[in-house]
Design a protein that fits this description.
Helices cover about 75% and strands about 5% of the residues. The protein is mainly alpha-helical and about 375 residues long. The protein has one domain: Rhopdopsin 7-helix transmembrane proteins (Up-down Bundle), CATH 1.20.1070.10. Strands 1-2 form a two-stranded antiparallel ribbon. About 35% of the residues are buried. This is Type-1 angiotensin II receptor.
Length: about 375
């Protein structure tokens, strides 16, 4: 999506032309968007249906995963518009309101997705390392309150992005784009520059760096707890390995999907702050940005796989849903993180036994 230098909203002349405008982008990116839309809608809808129909909202993990899937669905509905925007050579035919709303929903999904992943990581850390002490905090009520706070906080963070987006006419190219306006009026330009800098810093810090540090820290502490407990219960090795693989996949997916976009986004911000008008540099950045966005959007497809389809219980319930099997008598269905949750008590007990054994050896 283009960043433009404006003289006026009703008529804008670009100094570097439509940088990043290539036929292969206009062809390939919409196809990728279409695939992400189909896979993401189907995958996340299945997650919502399975959790709501069979697993119920009786565990903290299920509540967070359900909200994560709903967050991805709210974003995915905007992909057809972005696909059309790219396929038509960055021409936006949907009006100003949908321009603002779609841009806001993209950032809204960024924050909600990462915040829910972070909440899941913290919940898993508490379930493993502090299984007994955290039981009074890891309740359905607290989980729902956390979800409400995440939705509200993400909405507030996404409002500035929506306000700085609008539809602009490019006079020398006879097209209309959904983009950020950079006015030449000095007072307005300075205020807008400061606002865009704040938005970009929030996107990099709150939308990636800080949550990633929290997630990595939680998973390192989880791994240490599991490794420590493994010395006590060798029979749990296969279950531990499965949990660790799931956690590693979640971190890897998070990092690989968002890191390229964050890097080029930072480069884009630097060019805006220094008012770089080197068309070659802008061409490289604007050409790479659509592909990094595709990778970032793919995270909405990965989430159902990482947090849902890796679970045996989820697959069984999915087959029941596809076969339209009746619910029958209510039976306890473990959550998506049931294997880890059930092991958390054994891990805590093992850690406790380790501490007691060390204490008794010191006495002797």
């Amino acid at each position: 999506m283009q960043n433009i230098t404006a003289g006026a909203t009703e008529g804008i002349a670009l100094t570097c032309g439509m940088s990043g405008s290539h036929e292969f982008i206009f062809t390939l990116v919409p196809i990728v968007y279409g695939c992400i839309f189909v896979i993401g809608i189907v995958g996340n809808s299945m997650v919502v249906a399975v959790i709501y129909s069979y697993m119920k909202l009786k565990t903290v993990a299920n509540i967070f995963v359900l909200n994560l899937a709903v967050s991805d669905l709210t974003f995915l509905i905007t992909l057809p518009m972005w696909a059309t925007f790219t396929a038509t050579g960055y021409h936006w035919p949907f009006g100003g309101f949908l321009c603002k709303a779609s841009a806001g929903l993209v950032i809204f999904n960024l924050y909600t997705s990462i915040f829910f992943l972070t909440a899941l990581s913290i919940d898993r850390y508490l379930a493993i390392a502090h299984a007994v002490r955290s039981r009074r905090f890891r309740t359905v009520v607290y989980a729902r309150i956390t979800c409400v706070l995440i939705w509200l906080f993400a909405f507030l963070l996404s409002v500035p992005t929506a306000l700085t987006r609008d539809v602009h006419n490019i006079t020398n190219l006879n097209t209309t784009v959904c983009a950020i306006l950079h006015p030449k009026i000095k007072s307005s330009a300075i205020r807008l520059k400061e606002l865009l800098l704040a938005i970009s810093l929030m996107k990099s810090l709150l939308g990636f760096l800080v949550p990633f540090i929290i997630i990595i820290t939680c998973y390192c502490l989880i791994g240490r707890a599991l490794v420590g407990a493994r010395h006590i219960q060798k029979s749990s090795r296969s279950r531990d390995d499965e949990v660790l693989r799931m956690l590693a996949a979640a971190v890897l997916a998070f990092f690989l999907c968002w890191m390229p976009h964050q890097v080029f986004h930072l480069m884009q911000v630097l060019t805006q702050l220094t008012l770089v008008e080197n068309c070659a540099i802008l061409e490289i950045i604007d050409t790479a940005i659509p592909f990094t966005i595709c990778i970032a959007y793919f995270n909405s497809c990965v989430n159902p796989i990482v947090y849902g389809f890796v679970g045996n219980n989820f697959r069984k319930n999915l087959l029941r849903l596809l076969r339209c099997s009746p619910g029958g008598a209510p039976r306890p269905h473990p959550s998506i993180s049931s294997k880890m949750s059930s092991f958390s008590f054994r891990a805590s007990e093992a850690l406790s036994l380790t501490a007691k054994s060390k204490a008794s050896s010191d006495i002797k």
